[in-house]
Amino acid sequence: MNTSSMTTQPDGPSLQPRPKVVDAAVRHKHIVGDGPADGVIWYGNVDWWYHNRGHASTRMATRLAARVPTCWVNSIGMRMPKPGKTDLAWTRYWRKFKTLFKGLKRDPDTGMYVYSPFFVPLYSDFGLKLNATLLAIQVRIVRWRLGIKRPSACVSMPTMTPAMLKLSWVSVVFDRCDDFTTLPEADRASVAKLEEMLLNASDHAAYVNVPLYEREKDHVADAQLIGHGVDFDQFAEARPIGGQRVATPDVLKDIPRPIVGFYGGMDDYRMDRDLMIKIAKHLQPKGGSLVLFGPAQMDLAPVLREPNAHHMGQLPPQKLAEHAAQFDVGIIPFFQNEFNELCNPTKLKEYLALSFPIVTMRLPAFEPHEDFVYLCDSHDEFLAAIDRALVEDDVELAKKRRQAVAGDSWDKISDMIAKMLEVQ
Fold it and tell me: Which of 325, 333, 323 lies closest to 378, judged by CA?
């Protein structure tokens, strides 16, 4: 549905296949015999208590918790927020400090255990070694408290790798959700070394992004392209095609329509703030609103100065569908940058299940769905695409969007992860 051809980003990552260098000497210590894993430690890439809980990693981990005791270890990060350079740096310091004292808790909604580890926010060689020792001690205690004798590990955050390697596991899976070497302000060389270490140490690597999978599939003992799932029934039922709109949640009842919306984590290296401002301004003459749901990892004040821009905060995953169903157009206003080139947002399939028009910046993960999505290469194209999307009246196209993801499910994806982790 895009009007321009794909452009190659000059500063994008090299996607040439790497040579196979899997080294048995750096593989993790295996627990063998006596059956499958009886629990999972998931070294997470977000903090459960304040980050976006709609991430693919959290969707898979919470489903594993229905099978065996599963503990999500909150992220220790991989860069130090820098006041004056990083958005909301002091806010990030404070909220992480507060979660350090939560210890081990069980999430009442999912039954998953969540552990907030004590660590030192240093990412030098010394800091990584120190945190490896600290985390290994804490995770060993957590495993004992939960009665897990044959644990498997899933690692989403490379800075957790040295800690994971200090313990023994039935199986280790690298949840390869992003290329963290492209994360702004992170030490690229150090992160690359950690990712290389984790690729070598893992029994399996699970990929959601095709170019990243192609680049590394010969660089790990077993690489599997798992993609994303979607809670299809939940999203499809929230927005009947061609029928009466479901009841409007209270927080949106007074928001003028049309509503152009986004939900998910909002980070300064991922979201294009200038584009969001332009969208809000563009909607003002139409009487429309820009609505944002999700935790703010960036300074949204310049966007919210527009009178028709609204930030509603974070929603629990089970509430996403009923709120997003109120969007007239769903948007993904991402930068076309090196980090996003290797991303694959879970929200795209959820948007498709909702069946409304979708406007995004052009990125590789979105191109397989270009028949159902307005792909854009500039701010002007994005605004023009919103105008087309707002007047779209095509029931058959809406049905095709929904049908494109009808066979996908998080349960299917979680079955694949459980098999890698040797969980029954």
Answer: 333
Asked if 74 and 80 touch (Cβ cutoff 8 Å), the reply is no
Find all residues with CB under 8 Å of 325, minimum gap 6, and list them: 235, 238, 239, 245, 246, 354
Residue 7 placed within a domain? no
Structure tokens at 250: 């209270």
For the stretch 98-116, pLDDT in tens is 677 788 999 998 999 999 9
Inside any domain, residue 13: no
Which pair of tokens denotes residue 355?
Answer: 């069946």
Cα gap 325→249, rounded to integer Å: 10
Cα 153 to the center of its chain, rounded Å? 19
Q: What is the mean pLDDT of residues 55-68?
A: 93
Residue 245's pLDDT is 76
CA 418 – CA 182 distance, rounded (Å): 29
Residues 249 and 213 in one domain: no
CATH number of the domain that 154 lies in? 3.40.50.2000
Single pTM value for the model = 0.86
